């Protein structure tokens, strides 16, 4: 069901010229993404663990250091899990809280709980979802100046970054053992008044969720008819960046974004928002990476060019959507 308010925004993005695309993508810094943002996250960080708290603080500190002066809030709560009561906290960063509408980019920062193996190794969830978190931090940093300008010009639509806690199940995935953070935040936003008689939830014009990114040769399908126009935009941006020679180790035969029949919905952090009528673009590699939910989901098994290429495609999408 749609809780109203969402039909009020018919959003027209701005197309970037070839020279604008070149300039925009040159502002991304893969080295910074990798060493400043990604590597510190490659630790055990299941919900309730010391690593989880450290990574949450790390994300908050990085966002607060930006010149665009984001409003950074914690949506903190406790919930019952198969491991007993656990403390969770989502990070909610809003560029301009006064703007009417929000483009949301989201990912989860917790890692799945696995017991250590006999060699003492822990699960670090590189694709799941350290890379998506690092990409979001890099986008906010690379576009800091542009985002600050958009905020100063009091643009009607702003960027909101959501870093969810508690996406992973502690045991078996179920309605009660999964998506702890997303369920709590969707409920909370649906009850919080914003402006023009709409809630924070209804202010989301598009919810883009990143998950399972960083393995080589990913494939992305469209999951929802309602946002197929935005998915088409990703398809065309990938092709444009390819033609401009801005993507690395990227062949025309192996495009990431695929037009085709709708791919069934995959349960993920977007689900509680989708059920409340929020338009969703779910960017999850399907099929899942081979290393999914194994101790092999590590930095060594990531593909750097893929991470860089995806960052460029998403930066272009973001800049066009927000007319940066």
UniProtKB/TrEMBL annotation:
Gene3D superfamilies the UniProt entry points to: Zn peptidases
EC number: 2.3.2.5
Coiled-coil regions listed: none
Catalytic activities: N-terminal L-glutaminyl-[peptide] = N-terminal 5-oxo-L-prolyl-[peptide] + NH4(+)
Claim: Chloroplast is one of the keywords in the record: no
Keyword Disulfide bond found: yes
One of the record's GO cellular component terms: extracellular region
Protein name, as recorded: Glutaminyl-peptide cyclotransferase
Gene from which this protein is expressed: QPCTL
């Amino acid at each position: 069901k749609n809780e109203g308010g969402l039909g009020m925004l018919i959003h027209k993005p701005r197309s970037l010229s070839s020279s604008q695309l070149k300039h925009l993508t040159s502002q991304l810094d893969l080295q910074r993404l990798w060493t400043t943002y990604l590597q510190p996250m490659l630790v055990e960080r299941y919900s309730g663990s010391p690593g989880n708290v450290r990574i949450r603080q790390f994300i908050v500190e990085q966002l607060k250091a930006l010149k665009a002066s984001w409003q950074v809030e914690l949506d903190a709560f406790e919930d019952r899990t198969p491991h007993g009561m656990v403390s969770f906290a989502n990070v909610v960063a809003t560029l301009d809280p006064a703007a009417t509408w929000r483009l949301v980019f989201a990912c989860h920062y917790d890692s799945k709980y696995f017991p250590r193996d006999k060699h003492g190794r822990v699960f670090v969830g590189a694709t799941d979802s350290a890379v998506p978190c690092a990409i979001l931090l890099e986008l906010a940093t690379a576009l800091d100046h542009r985002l600050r300008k958009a905020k100063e010009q009091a643009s009607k639509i702003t960027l909101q970054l959501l870093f969810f806690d508690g996406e992973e199940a502690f045991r078996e995935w179920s309605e009660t053992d999964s998506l702890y953070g997303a369920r709590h935040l969707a409920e909370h936003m649906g009850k919080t008044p914003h402006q023009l008689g709409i809630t924070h939830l209804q202010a989301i014009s598009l919810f883009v969720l990143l998950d399972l990114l960083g393995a080589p040769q990913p494939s992305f399908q469209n999951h929802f008819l309602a946002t197929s126009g935005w998915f088409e935009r990703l398809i065309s941006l990938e092709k444009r960046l390819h033609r401009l020679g801005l993507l690395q180790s990227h062949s025309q035969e192996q495009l990431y974004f695929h037009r085709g029949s709708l791919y069934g919905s995959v349960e993920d952090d977007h689900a509680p928002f989708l059920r409340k009528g929020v338009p969703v673009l779910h960017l999850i590699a399907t099929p899942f990476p081979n290393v999914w939910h194994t101790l092999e989901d590590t930095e060594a098994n990531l593909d750097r060019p893929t991470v860089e290429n995806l960052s460029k495609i998403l930066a272009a999408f973001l800049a066009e959507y927000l007319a940066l």
